[in-house]
Structure formats: structure tokens, C-alpha cells
Write a structure and sequence with these properties.
7-stranded mixed beta sheet, elongated, Translation Initiation Factor IF3, 7 helices, 15 strands, alpha+beta, 36% strand, Alpha-Beta Plaits, 381 residues, 3 domains
């Protein structure tokens, strides 16, 4: 009887024993910053009653290079962007004060000012942040080994996130402190190292590459949101045709929602787009209506070529990040074994399936993200 009890206890102890640890996963975080020299400026104003050309001239006088107005709604809301090539804190403050004075003098309100570091200066900061993240992961891995009383092998997986952000219309880098002119970048490295037999697992490195590209568009879709137009539908469509809009029609009617007017402008130029907008505004105002907003889209036919270039940039960015992460682990990367893409040309829809475009530059910008896993040879991390 005693032997049976001892045997049962032994079996119970075996059943309740913890499973052998197969791996350790930690996440290292690293941050780095640096003073930048090229700064993108974005100024947001509302209720501004002034000619756009006058606003652009004022901002050039204040020191901005190549100022543009990518968004200007009929209610007077304006976005203006430009660049400082040799930025200083004093110059940034001077342009903010100049914009505020100009906007106020013309009955508007400057609602927000943003200063963004240029994308070209981001990768060097990102590289230092990556080193710091790898060091942090290494320290955490050693602490976990000591706590568990095990010794792990080389990494079998490195998954990087963070770093330089997705390229965009304002430069694709981080907001900066307008006083110190420092841009900060954070990188995270999730590292898994095997323990025991699992150390034979094939190592991989996973990263997220981002890429953007822009190109000129020639056929433009226009969409106008308006209310309370005192005219028949036939008169409205005739006015759109007379303004230079091809195949005008109405969006789906929604109760208590603005009327949506749509159509195309072929062989568009900034001047022809401006002329169409003025003609529509004149017609709507003459019939006691109100325009809420106007949006312009590139056509779906012109999107794929831009998307192809953005995809190439994203894959190059992914490979750059993967090589850098593997090098810090004493290894290298091979061929990609998994790719997951997001972004690119949107689904086809009423506006032609393409992105909004800038009616001043006639460019449409496409961005793509590629989550790529590479086969790798890794040493120590």
C-alpha cells in the first residue's frame, strides 16, 4: 500500500512538472535623436479671405522655399507647406509669427503650425536607435536567461518595428522640437532565441519596409459637396458641362447630407482646374447654394505606374532594415520567404479608385508598406 502511494505521488509530480522552456522572447527598445537642418513647415489656417498667390508671396518673403497650398476649401480653410533648407530656431519662429500676422490681417485664424524633419536625415538617426534597441534586447535576454537558469542559443527570429515613418506629403519623417531642432526616432526589436533542441529552427528576420512615389496625372476626377442649390438637376448638370466637367453626375442621395456632384476634367492643368472650380462656385453662389468642400482625384489608369515605383522603394527599404538588423546580430539575410503588402492604389469606386491629388503640382502620391520575412543566418544578438 505504501509503495502504491509513493508511486502515485511520483506520477503526480511528473505530471505537474513544468514543461521544458523552448525559447525566450524579449523586446528591446532604442531611441536616438539629432539636430536636423532641413525642416518641412505646415501651416493650417481657417476663415482666410485672401488670394492664394498673395499668401504664397508672403511666405516666400518670410523665408520658405517652394511654398505650396495643397488644400484650400471654399470656407477659407487653407493648408500651406514649405521648406527651410538651413533651419534655425529663430527662423522657424519668425515664419510662424509672419504667418500669424498675415492670416490675422486678412481675417483668418492660424490654428496650427507643424515642423517636420526631412526624410533624408532620418536613416542615420534610425541606425543609432536600432543599435540601442539591440543592446536593450541583449540585456533583457541575459536577464531572462539568469532568471530561468538556462542558456539560449543564437536568435531564431528578429522582428523590427518603428524607425523612420511612412513617407508622406510632408516629408515622411518625425515632428521636431522647434527650439532644439532635434528629431527623435524609436526602434523596437523583438528577439526570440531558442533553448535546447529548438535551437535548430531556421532563423528569420521580419521587418516592415515603407515606400512612396508620386507622379503627374492628366485626367482628374472632381467631387463637390454642396447644399441648398436653387436649381434643377438638369440645370446643375448643364452648368457642370459648361464649366468643363465631362460626364457630370450625382453621388448617391442621402437624407440631410450635402449634394455630391461628380465628373472628370480631361488633360487637366492647374489653370483649368482653377477655372472649373471658379465656374462651379459662381453657379452655386448665384443659385443661393453653399459649397462645403471640393476634392480632386487622379484617375485609376494613372495609378498603377506610380504604385510600381512605390513598391520598389518599399522593398528596398525592407531589405535595408533587414540587413541592418541581421548585421547587429552577427549574421546576414537571404531570400524573402513571406511578403504581406498593404497600401497602394485603392479599390475602384465612384471616384475612379485613385488617391487625392495636388491640384497645384498635378501630382498624385502613392504609399506602400511591405511586411517581409527573410531567411537569415544569425550569430549572437
Amino acid at each position: 500500500m505504501i509503495k502504491m502511494i509513493v508511486a502515485a505521488v511520483a506520477i503526480g509530480l511528473q505530471a505537474s512538472a513544468p514543461a521544458a522552456m523552448s525559447g525566450i522572447t524579449v523586446e528591446g527598445t532604442g531611441t536616438a535623436d539629432a539636430v536636423v537642418h532641413v525642416v518641412k513647415v505646415s501651416l493650417y489656417a481657417r476663415a482666410l479671405n485672401v488670394d492664394e498667390g498673395e499668401y504664397l508671396r508672403a511666405m516666400r518673403t518670410a523665408g520658405l522655399t517652394d511654398p505650396v497650398i495643397p488644400a484650400h476649401l471654399p470656407d477659407g480653410s487653407v493648408t500651406l507647406r514649405g521648406t527651410f533648407s538651413d533651419a534655425t530656431a529663430a527662423r522657424l519662429e519668425a515664419v510662424r509669427l509672419a504667418a500669424e500676422a498675415f492670416v490675422t490681417a486678412h481675417g483668418g485664424v492660424l490654428t496650427q503650425t507643424q515642423f517636420v524633419g526631412a526624410a533624408d536625415e532620418c536613416p542615420a538617426i534610425e541606425a543609432r536607435a536600432r543599435v540601442n534597441a539591440a543592446d536593450d534586447a541583449r540585456g533583457k535576454m541575459q536577464a531572462e536567461e539568469a532568471r530561468a537558469g538556462v542558456r539560449s542559443g543564437p536568435p531564431v527570429s528578429i522582428n523590427e518595428s518603428g524607425g523612420c515613418p511612412l513617407p508622406g506629403e510632408i516629408g515622411g519623417a518625425s515632428l521636431i522640437d522647434p527650439v532644439s531642432l532635434k528629431m527623435q526616432v524609436t526602434v523596437k526589436e523583438a528577439v526570440t532565441s531558442a533553448v535546447g533542441e529548438q535551437s535548430a529552427a531556421a532563423p528569420v528576420v521580419s521587418v516592415r519596409g515603407v515606400g512612396g512615389s508620386e507622379g503627374a496625372v492628366h485626367n482628374v476626377k472632381i467631387r463637390v459637396f454642396a447644399r441648398d442649390i436653387g436649381a434643377t438637376n438638369d440645370d446643375i448638370l448643364a452648368a457642370l458641362r459648361a464649366a468643363g466637367v465631362r460626364n457630370p453626375d450625382f453621388g448617391a442621395a442621402v437624407k440631410n447630407a450635402p449634394l455630391v456632384l461628380r465628373g472628370s476634367i480631361d488633360n487637366a492643368t492647374p489653370a483649368s482646374i482653377a477655372a472649373v472650380s471658379r465656374a462651379i462656385d459662381t453657379f452655386v453662389t448665384a443659385h443661393n447654394g453653399v459649397i462645403g468642400s471640393v476634392a480632386y482625384y487622379g484617375s485609376s489608369e494613372e495609378c498603377p505606374a506610380i504604385e510600381v515605383r512605390a513598391r520598389a522603394v518599399a522593398m528596398e527599404d525592407a531589405l535595408r532594415r533587414a540587413r541592418a538588423a541581421a548585421t547587429l546580430a552577427g549574421g546576414s539575410v537571404g531570400a524573402p520567404i513571406a511578403v504581406n503588402e498593404s497600401g497602394g492604389c485603392p479599390q475602384l469606386g465612384p471616384q475612379g479608385g485613385a488617391m487625392t491629388m495636388n491640384p497645384y503640382t498635378m501630382n498624385m502620391r502613392i504609399t506602400i508598406a511591405e511586411n517581409v520575412t527573410y531567411a537569415a543566418t544569425l550569430g549572437s544578438h
